[in-house]
Design brief:
457 residues, alpha/beta, eight-stranded mixed sheet, four-stranded parallel sheet, 14 helices, 35% helix, 16% strand, globular, binds adenosine-5'-triphosphate, binds magnesium ion, EC 2.7.1.11, Phosphofructokinase_dom, magnesium, kinase
Length: 457
């Protein structure tokens, strides 16, 4: 984004123009101005109401408030007048830029598991079939599968895959370089690539898109954001998040029952959230059974006079039991930094849940108070469940729209739900940084109200 000079009377115009340029989505005709536009038959086949016009927009953000802090955003306009930001609406287009019979589509899932992956794969395959695509392959085990000799056809096996969690294709981290991936695509004649994954996967997808443009390959690369943490920018939510919160609530309930049924019981639940505490916050709020919620965005003191341990002692004295819900990325400063990285180059985090369990036991022993500490890490149980109803619907629409976007000739894009409508966004804008919980937001304060926890500072 360009710096804004508020003294410039034209600033709002320039701000809007800058926004529109950044969120303009790349199209095949940028590199191939002569690419043929073919009339789509999709809506006719599906008896679907209408095509989406390329000029249709979805409202990303409307800002009009007098107290910026309470809105959880920075007010750039001193007069606090309207600023509207519109992005491109997703859906089937009247003109398509690929002949279905010429399409060889590939689907790849990378990173960690997330409820709904199979639902998205299924809908991508089904929608491709409706367009008339015969040639669909699955890339096994993430980007690394591009180095495999034979790619399995996945056309006929998708019918019931959404009934179980996981990914039909398998997932992985790390793998070949972008050059090797694009070599493999070129060799196999893959001209549509659907990429399901998080920020790392999307960075890869964007690099693949750029490499294809550089090599003048007419390819559509379309992402579907998969992050159980809900840490992708601009979107209302990502698929799997809702399911994760629901499952997390079960773990919290178990911790609560264990804590409640034991003499001076303390239940500790560690949930996903490497840099963003959305799952911990939402699950704490939803359950109403959490006394202390700790997230990466909000620093806390552990041992001090106003620390977590003192408060636990207070809870044991007053309530007789306590439940702690901690996001995996919280309190990393208390843990030894190993500098270890996973195959994708992500930092390996220390286990804050185990740390809390051990320190709590130690503390109560030291002060001579009985405490029965139980630790639950439901991470892999949550990630592996099948999507719930609302995520199932989200996945269905995202999968369909990914295919519509590719046929419409867009590439280097991803699809998301924004203000309850579906939109296409350029990949770089959604991975510029991780979306995180705003400690000044009303939602975080609602969580604090629900737990009744102090500031721990
Ligand atoms: P999760 O939310 O589960 O962490 P992720 O997509 O962020 O999902 P990663 O393991 O970080 O998961 O990355 C997935 C794939 O993307 C890996 O195969 C990795 O090699 C590749 N990748 C990550 N970052 C980049 C990048 N900047 N450029 C190209 N490829 C990348
Ligand atoms: Mg990631």
């Amino acid at each position: 984004a360009t710096a804004i000079d508020l003294s410039d009377p034209e600033w709002k115009l320039k701000y809007q123009r800058d926004f529109e340029e950044r969120f303009n989505i790349p199209h095949i005709t940028d590199a191939f101005p002569d690419a043929e536009a073919i009339p789509s038959t999709f809506c006719l086949k599906m008896r679907s109401p209408t095509y989406i016009n390329n000029k249709d927009r979805v409202l990303l953000k409307v800002i009009n408030y007098s107290s910026p802090a309470s809105a959880g955003a920075v007010c750039i306009d001193p007069d606090c007048t309207w600023i509207e930001q519109w992005v491109q609406r997703a859906g089937p287009r009247e003109n398509i830029y690929f002949r279905p019979e010429d399409v060889k589509a590939a689907i790849v899932t990378c990173g960690g598991l997330c409820p709904g992956l199979n639902d998205v794969i299924r809908l991508i395959v089904i929608t491709l079939e409706i367009y008339g695509v015969k040639n669909i392959v699955g890339i096994p085990f993430g980007y690394r599968g591009f180095s495999d000799k034979n790619l399995p056809e996945i056309l006929k096996v998708v019918q019931n895959i959404h009934l179980s969690g996981g990914s039909l294709l398998g997932v992985s981290r790390g793998g070949p370089t972008v050059t090797e991936i694009v070599d493999s695509m070129e060799e196999r004649g893959i001209n549509m690539l659907f990429v399901l994954g998080g920020n790392g996967t999307h960075a890869g997808a964007n690099a693949i898109h750029n490499e294809c443009v550089k090599r003048r390959m007419k390819v559509a690369v379309v992402g579907v954001p998969k992050t159980i943490d809900n840490d992708i920018l601009h979107m209302d939510k990502t698929f799997g998040f809702d399911t994760a919160v629901e499952e997390a609530q079960r773990a919290i309930n178990s911790a609560y029952i264990e804590a409640h049924s034991a003499y001076h019981g303390i239940g500790v639940v560690k949930l996903m959230g490497r840099s963003s505490g959305f799952i911990a916050m939402q699950a704490s709020l939803a359950s109403g059974q959490v006394d202390i919620c700790l997230i990466p965005e909000v620093p806390f003191n552990f041992h001090g006079p106003d620390g977590v341990l003192k408060h636990l002692n207070y809870l044991i004295e007053t309530k007789g039991s306590a439940v702690v819900c901690v996001a995996e990325g919280a309190g990393q400063s208390f843990l030894e930094n190993t500098n270890a990285k996973d195959a994708s180059g992500n930092k390996v985090l220390g286990d804050i849940g185990v740390h809390i369990q051990q320190e709590t036991k130690k503390y109560f022993k030291e002060i001579g108070v009985a405490a029965d500490v139980k630790y639950i890490d439901p991470t892999y149980m949550i990630r592996a469940v099948r999507a719930n109803a609302s995520d199932g619907i989200l996945c269905t629409v995202l999968g369909q729209n990914a295919v519509h976007g590719a046929f419409a000739g867009y590439s280097g894009i991803t699809v998301g739900i924004i203000n309850n409508h579906y939109a296409y966004l350029p990949i770089p804008e959604v991975i510029a940084y991780d979306k995180s919980v705003d400690p000044n937001s009303r939602m975080w304060h609602r969580c604090l109200t629900s737990t009744g926890q102090p500031d721990f500072l």
